[in-house]
Design goal:
Two copies of one chain form a homodimer. Chain A is built from 14 helices and nine strands. Chain A is α/β, with parallel strands linked by helices and 352 residues long. The longest helix of chain A has 25 residues. The mean pLDDT of chain A is 95. Chains A, B: It is found in: Cytoplasm, Cytosol.
Chain lengths: 352, 352
């Protein structure tokens, strides 16, 4: 028996490209609006209150694992609160997504962006308390995944002020003010690395870095303006903690995702999993890649699509089953349960 | 001197992968809001009125070519009005994008979608009149490009009713009602093919088929649910009219774009042009692929990025320079002029 049973879990084995007894599965947003118990809670408490209540955040985190039978827990939290101690005024409206009241627009604005130091981590203490509570209440064989937004995605939010289709403001900033961009990214790198290390200290076993918006970039621009900073974050995390680097919206960036330095490359559904795996080479695990919309179709279709993905990973260790993005709110819970069950009955040793 | 001087244009030569004297360039939305004269016109006339006035639409089409010195004209029109004679109630609000008041939601709704017959084309006569007027007023060496939305993108609009981020409703329809989807796509295929053939009869020299939203699909889903219908449209167009099949948002679909049957594959900026060209093989021309946001940066940056693209196409005939998507409203006109000039001074014969 290992001192830390989660180290022997199929999730950790897959992240390290070791053979597994069964294919591990977890789902982005597995604790979310598609669950009736989550919706009930949200009727009483706002999203931000949930994120800031360690007890509730931990409860949601743990309950989703119990309900679904998945192989990993992911901390219930949001990508953006890290921007608050950096000086941004973040608001969550009732219907609209998060809005930053003082977005960064001019190169001089970067001067007022505060890099998070050790002493500033107290402002995010509710996250670390949620980690400790969730870890204490999870079964010992279930790893807990911590996470943060990657520097590009956080910078894009800070510049746009809200979600965007074209990320026009962000790109104009990057192209027009390369020196200010570098300064902004360096402050984000240091802040994200401290935030993630504090999550690790509080008790997470793995990290997912979300670059949800980097898919808007050309490969050359990603390489020049983003890759060095994403690498810098990962380089500051302990080697024994698996890092999943997730990016959505551009399969042409997958080879660059592999250069970031994480053990696992997280891909969306826009790419054939076999092609993605070929693109990242032998020395990385892969996570993905079911289209979340598939889970809204019939049970038969869900299982057919899951089989298609699993068949493409046969005979090669290092696949963590997941969606290519978060569970959609209209997803039937029964389909999620059927998917988890199907993935767990798949024989990962069977050769192609 | 050819009977039709446009047949000897660099645009038509590039589309047919013949050597050119200079690299042809045109820009998606080259007649758009970034032009002060267009904004002046729009202060007096709504977008839909512009589209429906053959005189104004032709004038905008022709003036953009004169103003920019580009190598092709693209008809000023919108993707969606074809849905009106098919039974959809299309509205353009003042700020919001187009909205369909009676979106298609249930499989039975497909029954009421009308396939456009020859006799129904009168409802779109303003488009064909604009083609005739624009052709009559363009220099004889400038080809005029007609266009339509591809069946998937039109179907997605008909189902969502407005623009969407996840295309959740569309995918649920595709996955849950494959038979109704087939019926819907067949009606769209016949309608789009008739619409495009009527544009060709009215005087366009090339066609661009816009699949602006198909990038949301996994390659397997594109192949199964979309490719046969896109192929069916192109197969009904005369072989001597070059077809550009444009798709944005998913570089993993580029090899499938080449299977559609058009002479030219139009790509966005998310992919390295050399990689895209390798993916489509030797028997297709390629169009693209500057990020429109680059045009909002400094003139030096614009030219540096244009050079990077041109260097990747050296020594291989068949490149039409374009953006990876439409010109952004905030683009400085001078940057567009500098780009056109730079591309025209590039020596396409110079070997790598």
């Amino acid at each position: 028996m290992a001192a830390f049973p989660w180290e022997e879990s199929n999730f950790m084995k897959a992240a390290r490209r070791q053979p597994v007894e069964r294919v591990p599965i977890w789902l982005m947003r597995q604790a979310g609006r598609y669950l009736p118990e989550y919706r009930q809670l949200r009727e009483k408490v706002s999203f931000l209150e949930l994120c800031r209540s360690p007890e509730l955040a931990a409860e949601i985190t743990v309950n989703a694992v119990a309900r679904l039978g998945v192989d990993a827990a992911i901390l219930f939290a949001d990508l953006l609160p890290i921007l608050e101690p950096m000086g941004f005024d973040l608001r969550f409206g009732p219907d609209e997504g998060p809005v930053i009241r003082n977005p960064l627009r001019l190169p001089d604005d970067v001067e007022s962006v505060r890099e998070i130091q050790e002493k500033d981590l107290g402002a995010l203490d509710y996250v670390f308390r949620a980690v400790r509570l969730a870890r204490a209440n999870l079964p010992a064989e279930i790893p807990l995944i911590g996470f943060a937004g990657a520097p590009f995605t956080l910078a894009a939010y800070a510049i746009e002020g809200r979600t965007s289709r074209s990320f026009e403001r962000t790109k104009r900033f990057v192209f027009a003010y390369p020196q200010a961009w570098r300064e902004l990214m360096e402050r984000l790198v240091a802040s994200v690395a401290r935030y993630l290390n504090a999550q690790i200290d509080a008790g997470v076993q793995a990290i997912q870095l979300f670059d949800s918006w980097a898919g808007c970039l050309a490969p050359d621009h990603y390489r020049q303006f983003v890759l060095p900073y994403t690498q810098a974050v990962v380089s500051q995390l302990p080697r024994n903690v698996p890092v999943i680097y997730f990016l959505t919206g551009n399969p042409a960036l997958i080879p660059l995702q592999a250069e970031v330095g994480g053990q696992v490359v997280g891909v969306d559904w826009r790419v054939d999993l076999a092609d993605a795996w070929a693109a990242i080479g032998e020395d990385h695990a892969i996570q993905g890649n079911l289209d979340p919309a598939v889970l809204c179709a019939s049970r038969e279709f869900v299982l057919e699509e899951a089989r298609r993905i699993l068949e493409r990973t046969r005979g090669r260790p290092g696949h963590i089953f997941n969606l290519g993005h978060g569970v959609l709110p209209s997803t039937p819970v029964d389909n999620v349960l059927a998917l988890v069950d199907f993935v767990h009955t798949w024989d990962p040793q069977q050769m192609p």
